[in-house]
Every structure is written in structure tokens, then in C-alpha cells.
Here is the input.
Amino acid sequence: MTIRIQCTCGQPIELAGAPPGGPLRCPRCGLAHSVIGPAGAAKARRPAAGADGRNPGWPAIAGSACAVLLLSMASVWAVFAGQGSAPEPHGAAAVAALEPPETPPPSRAPQAPRPRPARPASPRPEPQPAPVRVRPTARSRPATPPRAEPAASPPKTPSAQELFDRASPAVVRIEVSKRDRSESTASGFFVTADGVLVTNHHVVRGAILTTVKVADNTTLRVEKLLATDPRTDLALLKVRGGNFKFLRVADGPPPKVGTKVYAIGFPLGLNVTFSEGLVSSLQKEGPRLKYIQTTAAISPGSSGGPLLVPDGRVVAVTTGAYLDRERLAQNLNLAVPAAKLRSLLRRANVSVAGAAGEP
Here is the structure.
């Protein structure tokens, strides 16, 4: 008996006279095949011709191909399932053997619950003593740093024009009539609001009538000579009236050389005149200061006028100048220091501190 099968690789295999169950190996891929069933069933017969003597056609060939494919699948399954472990089935059993037996799903054994890892026992906290609350008797506040006070700005120094406007109303023109029937003019200034004014001693020496003309051109008669000092060439006069503009008298050391100063007066009987200069020297007589020398212009008629620093304080009383007919002298003008004026005011019991009307 000759059996023809086709391997899965497409190689045709012929087996003649082989018993069922005999192994068949493909000469091409080496795959083993087994013939299952009786010899009569495995015999491959050619299909009979039809009534017209021709081949039955493609339907018969397709049926044969399906039978061969089933036999090949059965052989493969037998190889993997392990052949020879049980007697080969015959007939209907061979067809049933082609179908794999239904295997019930493996039953899972109930799993025991996985034990949880035991947590380490936390140490029991020791009892703590209850906190003691201390109530403060006084609320403490953080110390605040001392507040820095802004530095006081220095007072503004007035301009020369402002200084003249403030100081000139306190300066007066003095007219003197003497016993020899001569007349002269000089300068002076108020130091109090009630009519006390300052001038030079040589201005009123030998006077029989002295009048002053104030800023509004009012002429006032001097009613009293309060004090005079020929040694310092200073004199204090008193006129009737009140509410006069007056100047402050400086209290302290004299101005240093180089300090800017201003002189106000009536030189040669002219209208009020304002001149500027410097302190050029401090003239001393022994250890004491006698004169302040200045470059501010001073002429006859300026005697008795104030010498001011820029803040308006009187630092000296203008009194004269060095004259040398043989040699030319320029800007050698002299003024009596304010300290000598304050001394004379104290002798006359005249207070000049803190009065209204200061420039």
C-alpha cells in the first residue's frame, strides 16, 4: 500500500507498505509523521472519472487536500502530545483523536491570607510634668532706639541789601551846635527802643545843642547825656520818644581778621551811606584791644556809626582814621570794639538784652 502525504513544509512524502502508526520523516525538514487508522482507510485512491470519462474536477481534489491536511495536523499533534503512551484509536476513534480533549481549567487552591508584618510596639511616652505658666507682672516692651534729631541748620545770613534794609532805620544823623558857634554833623544809632543811642565822645564835646534826624526825617532834640568816656571816645544820648528801631550789640570775642564787615553812616553830611570791607587788623594797646582796623570806608561825618557783621550785630563803633600828611595812608580806618561799648552801657545802667525791634 502506498500512502502519499504532504508535509507542512510543502514536501510530498510517499510511503509504500508501511503499517499504521509507522513513523514518517520528511526528507526536507526532518519532521516525523505517524499514520493513524487501518491500512484500508489510509490507502490513497485516485478519484474515479465522471460519466463523461473526465476527472471529477477541483471539488474532488479539494476534498482530498482537506483529508491530507487533517492527517498532517493529527500527526503533528501526536508528536507533541507524546505518541505511544496509549493505544492508537481506530475508525471513529481516530477522528475523535484529531480533536484535543477539553481540559478543565486548573482549580486554584484557596490561598491563605497573607499575614501582615507585626508593627514594633512604640515606646510609651513617659508622663511629662504640666508646664508652669508664669504671668508677668509688667509687660516688657522692646527698647526703642533713641530718635536722632535732625541737625539744626545754621541761620540764613542775609544779603548785603537785606542787611542795609534792616539796619539803616536804626542809624541817625546827629547835628551839633557848639559854644564857638560851629556846627558839625556825625552819625549814631539806637541800642534800645526807648531812645538810647550811641555816638562818639568827640562828637558831643562842647555841644550846647544836639539834635538827631531819624529815618523818617523827623528831628528830635537830645534831652540828656547819659554817659561819656573820653578814653574810649564813646557817649550815650537819650531822646524823647519810643518804638525806635535799634541794633544788637555783639557780646563775645572780637571778629577775626578777614571777617567781612559793613559800615553805615552820614559821611560829610551826605545821605545814609553803606560801605563794605574786611577786618584788616586788631590794634592793641598793651594786652588790651584798643581798635578794630577795617577797610570799610570811613570819612568825617561817619564818626559814631555802627560797624556790622553780616548777621546784623554791632561789633564796633566807627571813630576815625589814621591821617599822615607826609605819607599817603589808605584804608586805615578805626572802630572802638563792642566790648568797650557794653562796659559803658553797664555803667549807665542801660539794658540792651532781649528788647523788641532787633534786626
Notes: Residues 2-47+59-82 form one domain. The chain has two domains: 2-47+59-82, 160-347. Confidence is low (pLDDT under 50) at residues 38-58, 84-98, 354-359. DSSP finds six helices and 16 strands in the chain.
